[in-house]
Design a protein that fits this description.
The chain has 689 residues and is of the alpha/beta class. It has 22 helices and 28 strands.
Length: 689
């Protein structure tokens, strides 16, 4: 441990487009303060409140100080163990499961949103591939968007933050940068000050929507019909850029055919919008250039999610908005880099069972030949983040399931595990962090020594592989060795700049102009407006709308949006008190509800008990409960995902979080005697518990 005060430059790897550069002040070996640094000009010295609080996770009561092993069966206690005992138990159990059931009975479970290039898909991938476990389709987020954008444009970087100030029209569609990606907001404001118009398309009246010229508060799941109505307007009003389409795209006529049924009036009726306002947005997009669309991930989380993204991202091609600074679209800039984990994993992916992570409940309870006998969880908290939460929890409670959780804090999933391993945070180990909102990559350096007995992912999976007699990780057993290996797979100039300066910009430049500096990465270099392969894979076909699942019994749409409190479920342990359900006052009045009431939100899958807040910024017939809640943040231990089906999106196999349809009723608490309390819902004669 070093004494005195010092500062360390590093980077935030948490699941946000910005990947902020950080200046961490350390005093006597402990984190004193976390600030934004000037290393990355986009960060410009300021960061979100979530990361400023990260020291509370590092030193909080929930931090896992040492390995733990459960004794006495599923209801037994977790006791302190040594790393040797914990890894020995895991290795022996993996071998016995392989011998009895086959290695496919082991399911590794992880998600990479808050990880750099070292903490996932290095030694972990080598271990599980070489051992022959089941594979995981990491589809809970971004798969519909990435599948759609890849089909349309291949790998093509988008408009970066700094170029938004050149746009004269900005459409923010399904994104809320005030909560995620805060460094885009100043550039949008600068554009507005220079005369740009701002349109926000979101069911909620977000902070940015309040500052917009137009807010289209559409019904969840109807983004696709709104986008198709804009396409129809462009084609029918002769505002499509036929010259650009002829030179740079294919499939325009097929798109035009599919969009033809979606008049402005019909789309407005389905989406619950004012048709005159929607037509005005269509006219603005046709008339104003440069125009940029910021396409977020919110619009993918429903049954029409992939088609919605496909329709939105196709708009700049049909309208001919490319070729100028501040024109085009932006979503993810991961395409700025050519390297992939396959460049350094070095072990071929086996042809073993592939499990969609959104089907975790099904996998744990229904899969046979072989059944899942071990769940190895890392970089993820599936007990609260996966759909159909009650089925997931039922599966995790299986007496015969052996669960390993490797995490920084005692999550809801870790509390159910048989073995718990303590992981380092990004302040305690090396990593490489690309930004998916910008075209930069940064070096993460440890600011402090590992807290307690925490170890980096690279080291733990390498040691476990050695115990299993696998040789794939022999030369990369530490995060420093893995760092050198991964940078060794990059172009020399990229690697040397990253290691010397701590930050490197992609060869496409910090602010490329689409169709000038970067072009589609499709096989023929053209935009594929109607990718035939996707049309055959999609239940209703491309550019089709699947009807709203609302019923008379469950008339309210549930949205679980990102907030300024957590990054997905990360930092959920720092929430104080129960989260509240947000509802429009008119919906509350119909149900006789008021702010502060304890309510029961329910459907056929489950129920959530929490306080109610009336919020006029909510769309009518839509309710909101925050994303990323832990079970302790509701009154009955269920989160919004208890009400979410594990059905999949139309494209990409993603989760349909925003397709949850619910009803809400008051919970009345009545004292029975001095020791017992019963609860009734306002619409039932039966006690809840």
């Amino acid at each position: 441990m070093k004494w005195g005060r010092s500062t360390v430059d590093t980077v935030c790897p948490l699941d946000c487009p910005d990947a902020c550069s950080l200046e961490v002040t350390v005093e006597n070996g402990k984190v004193l303060r976390i600030d934004g640094s000037q290393t990355h000009d986009a960060t410009n010295g300021y960061i979100c409140g979530k990361v400023r609080r990260f020291g509370e996770r590092v030193y909080g009561d929930a931090r896992i100080p040492h390995p733990l092993i459960r004794e006495g069966g599923r209801n037994g206690e977790l006791r302190k163990a040594s790393w040797d005992d914990a890894l020995g138990l895991i290795a022996s159990r993996m071998e016995s499961i392989r011998d009895e059931w086959s290695a496919e009975a082991i399911l590794p479970f992880s998600y990479g949103g808050s990880n750099g290039l070292l903490t996932q898909d290095t030694t972990d991938a080598r271990l599980f591939r070489q051992f022959g476990t089941s594979r995981l389709a990491r589809t809970v987020c971004a798969m519909p968007t990435s599948t759609a954008s890849q089909a349309l444009y291949g790998k093509m970087p988008g408009v970066t933050y700094a170029d938004y100030r050149y746009a004269r029209l900005i459409i923010v569609w399904g994104a809320n940068p005030s909560s995620s990606g805060i460094h885009l907001v100043p550039h949008i404001k600068a554009a507005q000050e220079a005369g740009a118009a701002l349109v926000v398309i979101d069911p909620r009246r977000t902070n940015l929507a309040k500052q917009a010229d137009i807010h289209l508060a559409l019904k969840p799941g109807t983004d696709v019909v709104v986008a198709l109505a804009l396409h129809r307007f462009l084609f029918e009003q002769d505002r499509a850029d036929e010259e650009f389409l002829s030179a740079h795209a294919s499939g325009a006529e097929r798109l035009r055919e599919r969009a033809a049924e979606w008049t402005i009036d019909r789309a407005a009726d389905v989406a619950g919008l004012d048709p005159e306002l929607l037509e005005h947005v269509a006219e603005m997009y046709a008339d104003i250039s440069p125009a940029v669309i910021r396409c977020g991930w919110g619009l993918e989380r429903n049954r029409n999610g992939g088609n919605a993204v496909l329709s939105v991202l196709a708009l700049p091609t049909v309208a001919g908005k490319f070729g100028v600074r501040g024109g085009g679209y932006s979503m993810s800039n991961s395409g700025a880099w050519t390297h992939t984990p396959e460049d350094w994993i070095g072990v071929a992916e086996p042809d073993t069972r592939l499990v969609n992570m959104n089907h975790l409940g099904r996998a744990l309870l229904d899969y046979r030949d072989p059944p899942v006998q071990m769940l190895f969880v890392y970089n993820c908290n599936p007990a609260v983040t996966m759909p159909n939460q009650n089925r997931v929890l039922e599966g995790l409670a299986r007496e015969d399931l052996f669960t390993v959780v490797f995490d920084q804090v005692m999550t809801d999933t870790a509390a159910l595990a048989d073995v718990v391993l303590p992981a380092t945070t990004f302040l305690e180990s090396y990593d490489i962090v690309p930004s998916y909102g910008l075209s930069t990559m940064q070096l993460a350096k440890p600011a402090i020594d590992a807290v307690g007995e925490a170890r980096p992912n690279v080291e733990v999976f390498a040691e476990l592989g050695a115990r299993l007699g696998l040789d794939a990780n022999h030369d990369h057993a530490t995060d420093v060795e893995a760092l050198l290996e991964v940078t060794g797979a990059m172009p020399d100039e990229v690697a040397s700049t990253l290691m010397d300066a701590g930050i490197v910009t992609a060869s496409t430049g910090g602010a490329p102009i689409q169709f000038v500096d970067v072009t589609p990465g499709t096989p023929d270099g053209k935009v594929q407006l109607f990718p035939e392969a996707l049309d055959h894979q999609t239940p209703a076909g491309l550019y089709r709308y699947q009807e709203d699942p609302t019923t008379d019994d469950y008339p309210l749409s549930l949205i679980s949006a990102a907030t300024d409190k957590t990054i997905n479920s990360t930092l959920g342990e720092l929430r104080r008190g129960p989260a509240t359900l947000h509802m429009h006052p008119a919906d509350a009045e119909r149900r006789g509800l008021s702010t502060g009431d304890t309510v029961r939100m329910f459907n056929a899958l489950g129920e959530v008990h929490c306080p109610l807040t009336l919020n006029p910024d909510m769309r009518r017939s839509t309710v909101g409960l925050p994303k990323g809640l832990w079970r302790m943040s509701t009154l009955n231990g269920s989160t919004a995902n208890a009400l979410v089906s594990d059905e999949l999106t139309d494209i990409g196999g993603g989760a349909v979080f925003n397709d949850a349809r619910v009803e809400v009723a008051r919970v009345v608490t009545v004292a029975l005697d001095s020791e017992n309390v019963a609860e009734w819902t306002a619409d039932s004669d039966e006690p809840v518990h």
